[in-house]
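[job 4471] stage=fold_predict status=RUNNING
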Amino acid sequence: MRNLTLLTDRYELTMVGGYLQSGKENQKANFDYFFRRIPDEGGYCLTAGLEQVIDYIKNIHFTSDDLAYLKGWGIFPDPVFRYLRKFRFTGDLYAIPEGTVIFPHEPIIRVTAPLPEAQFIESALLNIMNFQTLIATKASRVCTAAEGDPVIEFGLRRAHGPDAALQAARAAFIGGAQGTSNVLAGKLFDIPVLGTVAHSWVESFPSELEAFRAYCRIYPKDCLLLVDTYDTLKSGIPNAIKVGKELRDQRKGELRGIRLDSGDLAYLSQEARKMLDREGFEGVRIFASSDLDEWIIESIKKQGGRIDTWGVGTKLVTAYSAPALGGVYKLTAIEEKGRMVPKIKRSDNPEKVTNPGLKKVIRFFEESGLMRGDVLFLEEEPLGAKPLRGYHSMITRVNKVYPTRFSRKELMVPVFQNGRLIYNPPSLREIQENSRRNLEQLGSEFKRFKNPHIYHVSLSRKLIKIKKDLLREAY
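[job 4471] inference complete, writing structure tokens
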């Protein structure tokens, strides 16, 4: 893992220096990481990135070169550099595991640590979690549209740089993609790597047929042909069928598939399926690419397209339709006279008013196993075997009772305690399986792309009272 200690905003360091010079070196604080709005006006998000946050925190240290660079700013006194030279994370961190369905305003990560430490990790944590959560969510939507067909992440060449390409491949796998074209991501994260040829291969031969024959001669057991270089229906598919028959006759392999990368994919796939089936190639798969996203895939499906596998690139790895997750990291409690005192950020925009205190997230499930709602409780609140009521974050009269017959689960798990890592991150395949289970437990009304049902995230009675009291004091 690279040392990303200086992957931060300047204001984090000026605040750290200010805290130290204000006598706040050991004052504990709590920060929550959460988001306010779901991208694409969707019904849910899927958390991703925790493993990289763990690696980042484990490896925080200021090198001699780092300190020399910061000293060149000329704004920090020597005591700040003595502190930074020994800087390590010594606090507690709780998090909702990767691959969990999450919703606005509930804490995904909770950090309780000395104020300078808790403050310092903000920028890198947001950078990692916002991007991977965004891409995992986008991939989940694409896979939902594909209705079980394999989706392959194809976005290396359009990603916003090498790091984005790698993390997008990882997050897309968490969201349900079954492979990637990115070889380095495949090696680093043990993701299946897929891909065959580009149009340049076909154009480099005197004819399309010769290009197909050459490829299948070299890779007879992995023969997937790109059929749209010249004329898909008059040339590409007939030539693929001809080469497929030659492979069979020679008993050297089998035509595995064809790829469509342009044109009317619904129509072309229908015609391709007819042509292939008519010539005895019922098992040949039709692979499609070409600037796909969840809405295009959904439309092709509705039009009766016969595509078996989807290669999704640009619009997945850039989250093209909603290119940023507005995750934030807000102080919700601070130590005063030996106890943690809830704090609130007030705003004229109700959406930006924070939920105070150290909180836990309890998810309720009906008898069928489907999610029914989440309630934020203060960390110390006992729940007991009784019906529990959740309140709207601003309007107390709007509330909902969760009966005892509903099962419940606390979502946040301890990751660091007193700076020591106590969490064993699951494998990427285990995270993907967690995503699959979570999405099975989420009703279809929350997964539709247009006007999804709003999932209830409520506050406990005690938490809503503290919030209202703090708001009154703020005026």
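[job 4471] summary: The first helix runs from residue 10 to 21.
[job 4471] exit 0
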